[in-house]
Amino acid sequence: MIGIYRGADLPTGMRDVVVALWQVSDPGNVGTLLRTADAFGAGVSLSVECADPLGPRALRASAGAIFRVPLIPWDEVPARKVALVAHGGEPLAGLALDPPLTLLLGSEREGLPEELAAQCENASIPTPGDAESLNVAAAGAIALYELSTRHR
Questions:
Q1: Most CB within 10 Å of its CB: which of 33, 73, 112, 114?
Q2: Please, what is the angle between helix 27-40 and helix 136-150, to 10°?
Q3: pLDDT in tens, 97-138
Q4: What whole-number distance in Å separates Cα of residue 60 and Cα of residue 51?
């Protein structure tokens, strides 16, 4: 199946919550986070070097969310930023997560650069057992769910 659409027809606008992805290279993760953002009413912002959200794997993983979720330019996201870091952040459940808010997620291998994380409040998702860290798509889903439980 082939779909044809105009890039100008993709959604625009701002959302109170934005998931900002820093150099997330796996198109499946980008698509999954688009789909999760759609479920929770968030927007998505992609840094340079992120996987193409219009590539076949990202489109498949997004399950059509790319046509509902606005892609927000990196420099236009809400000013309050919470960076999800693997270690050393405040437990996510203990942070005030009042919108407008940007949840910043880093690349699969490297996470967020220290200089970028230093410009944000840092939060971690405690994992039981020996898990080093969570998959970026899983971490984003948990963070959006945590936010949603507080603002129903």
A1: 33
A2: 10
A3: 999 999 999 998 889 999 999 999 999 988 776 666 789 999
A4: 13
The tokens describing 85, both together, are 């870091």
Answer whether the bond into residue 100 is a cis peptide, omega within 30°.
yes
CA 32 – CA 141 distance, rounded (Å): 9
If we measure between CA atoms, which residue out of 97, 90, 117 comes closest to residue 106?
Answer: 117
Per DSSP (E only), the strands in the chain are 17-21, 43-46, 81-84, 90-91, 101-105, 121-124
* Bridge partners of residue 78, in order along the sequence: none
Position 35, amino acid: R
The reply to whether the predicted model has a pTM over 0.70 is: yes
Selection from 126, 128, 120 nearest residue 93 by Cα: 126
Query: Would you identify the CATH topology of the domain 12-150?
Result: Alpha/beta knot (3.40.1280)
Amino acid (1-letter code) at residue 36: T
Residue 88 amino acid letter: G
Domain boundaries, the chain: 12-150
What pLDDT does 108 receive? 85
For 1-38, the pLDDT digits (tens) are 556 667 677 888 899 999 999 999 999 999 999 999 99
